[in-house]
Amino acid sequence: MGYRIRPLAAAIAVAFAPTATWAEQPVSTPRLDDVVVNDSRLQPTPEPATLDSRSLAPQRAATSDAASLLRDVPGVSLYGAGAVSSLPAINGLADDRLRIKVDGMDLIASCPNHMNPALSYVDPSNLESLTVYAGISPVSLGGDSIGGSIIAETRAPEFAASGQGTIAKGELGAFYRSNNDARGGNASATVATENFSISYNGARSEANNYTAGKNFKTYTATGRAGERMDRDEVGSTSYQTDNHTLGIAMRGGNHLFEAKFGYQNMPEQLYPNQRMDLLDNEQKRLNLRYLGQFDWGRLEARAYHEKVDHFMDFGDDKRWWYGAASGGAAAIDPIACGAMSATCAQGMPMYTESKTSGASLKADIALGQNDLLRVGSEFQRYRLDDWWPASGSSMWPGTFVNVNDGERDRSALFGEWEAQRERWTTLLGVRYERVSMNAGTVRGYNPAGSGNQGRDANLFNASDRSRHDNNWDLTALARYAANAGLNIEVGLARKVRSPSLYEAYPWSTWQMAALMNNFVGDGNGYVGNPDLKPEKAHTLSATLDWHAADRRWEFKATPFYTHVTDYIDAIQWDGTTNAPRTTPLRDQFTVLRYTNQSARLYGLNLSGQMPLASTGIGNLGIKGLLSYTHGQNRDTGDGLYNIMPLNAKLTLTQKSGGWDNALELIGVAAKDRISDARNEMKTAGYSLVNLRGSYSWQRVRLDFGVENLFDRYYEMPLGGAYLGQGTTMSATLNNVPSGVVPLWGTPVPGMGRSLYAGVNVKF
């Protein structure tokens, strides 16, 4: 029979599943007029892991990195990077292998070190929800990816209720964290009538370097004359960032028009696992959206444009002057070096500029009470230039062109049928994508200079760099509701991803140039391969969801298996012979070239929660998660790089009135299965204890806590190689007389004990 619902909220719940299930619709969704809809209450398939504003709130004071808010999602781990730019991984697949959407926009990291990933443009204070489709994602939400989808939604526009007139509301927040003197604030304001809304969200965050739980190095030099740091200080971990969003929305009847203007100014984000640092990043973006509800279903159209200007060089903790005056080892006196500029280099400037334009059109068509058809098309146009001006004698007379006129265009069509039959809910989807890529001719600093710059450039320029990939994705899922307390879900998917511009087109085998192309933080240099084939992943996944009828307690188990043909891995490369190394280098940094191989990943994710007792101090509960992933290169038998070892988290919760407190116990096993080709470093197992607390009044929320309560020292399994200070462009394995950092053998350590507090006031 018919029943009365809000049409936009219903459409989002059915077809835009990242925001909520039917039982938990997003409170900030803009509402249109009531209509009567004859439709069944289809559950989103597959069921995602969703973090709404309520579950995100306790974490915002503890981090300025939006990606780190995903750390409570089973199967999700984080590659260490800059303080606000960590790269999420799902079941061992990370970065470009995931489809990450921010308010429907596909944003691409425009940097040879991926210092500006999509989630780095969102401040946690502006996030309304984060939704993760682990492993298997609907074709309507994930193309050109093999590892899953992450959907980030910022605050939706708000309107006055009918007859309310004009509303005005706002929010102010601030935080402080002790370990790295992190501080910042956020502000938002909305003025709206029944049909018009204008809003602003802004945030600023900055911090100094953090310290580890103990001294982890024997040296203090930074490579700059007179500049030193403590032995427990993790160099190049400071940052400063500003984010602003202006939103304008109008609605009438069953139609919504929305425009969001975004701006980021990041003057600094230093990197402990890269040889360079981000010293300026400016992003400007425009996102336009139309959403309409009709008798037959829902229609959504979107268009967006993004421009990024990115600059890298050596930050304050890394050596600035290089030259022959001291044999390239000790810190050079900048006054003396300035007087002999013919033998000295002042920094190493690197510029990247990109433009991304995209559009999409999606329709959700009700085929009956129990059937829904989703169809749509998407287009993305991406342009990239990456160049490095000369800064010293060995680089003159010209500019090194890393990627020239890089082009990557995607066009897609998809169809998806979701149906419900008694206890069964099924989803079948197919997606076609055409990916076209090209790049212009290149040159080195000096065609006759070191590192075979002339040879490599000539070979690249003579090659056919244009490519066109025709990729097909298929998804089939089924959920069976055995009873009110047991759901079983099984899914099978074929996903395809074409290589990125930074995997295909960096051309130089010269070690210094190759070292600049590294987005995994392992300290190695990488050479692109224009002949790479698209990765093709076949994933089988199942979920057992055992729960109480009211979800007071629940337990989920999700085993998965993924086989990837033409997996883009890397092999050690000899720049002199321009061929694979016959004798691999060990226990040192090296140069690798991307190549297609075969890979296999499998594992298990567990999660659950349950109440413990209702006592005089409030309601006590427990929740936990456990994740295990095994990744192997089937061609070589080698381990895949940066696979998170077995890890678990157990959280004891206490709630009473306005209090919401938690004690977290984290355990991570040793990482001893590594990628030998990349000389990946092993890390020891560790355990951590965190305390979190909050108290909420009607308009004020106070958050506080302690991270790493016992100040334990640990090395981050996915943190990469420590390159945070010193002569980072040197390839030496040993310490030199000045105490400059040894460039292999030290993983990036995690942060020591840190107290934090944050306050948020609504008015």
Cα-based radius of gyration, to the nearest Å: 26 Å
CATH C-level category: Mainly Beta
Alpha-beta classification:
mainly beta
Residues in helices, as a percent range:
under 10%
Identify the CATH homologous superfamily: TonB-dependent receptor, beta-barrel domain
Low-pLDDT residue intervals, each spanning 5 or more residues: 1-42, 325-330, 732-738
* CATH fold-level label: Maltoporin, Chain A
Total E-strand runs: 36
Number of helices: 6
What's the architecture, going by CATH?
A: Beta Barrel
Strand content: over 45%
Characterize the main sheet.
22 strands, antiparallel, barrel
Would you write up a description of this structure?
- The chain is mainly beta.
- It contains 6 helices and 36 strands.
Notable traits:
49% strand; 22-stranded antiparallel β-barrel; 763 residues; 6 helices; Maltoporin, Chain A; disordered N terminus; mainly beta
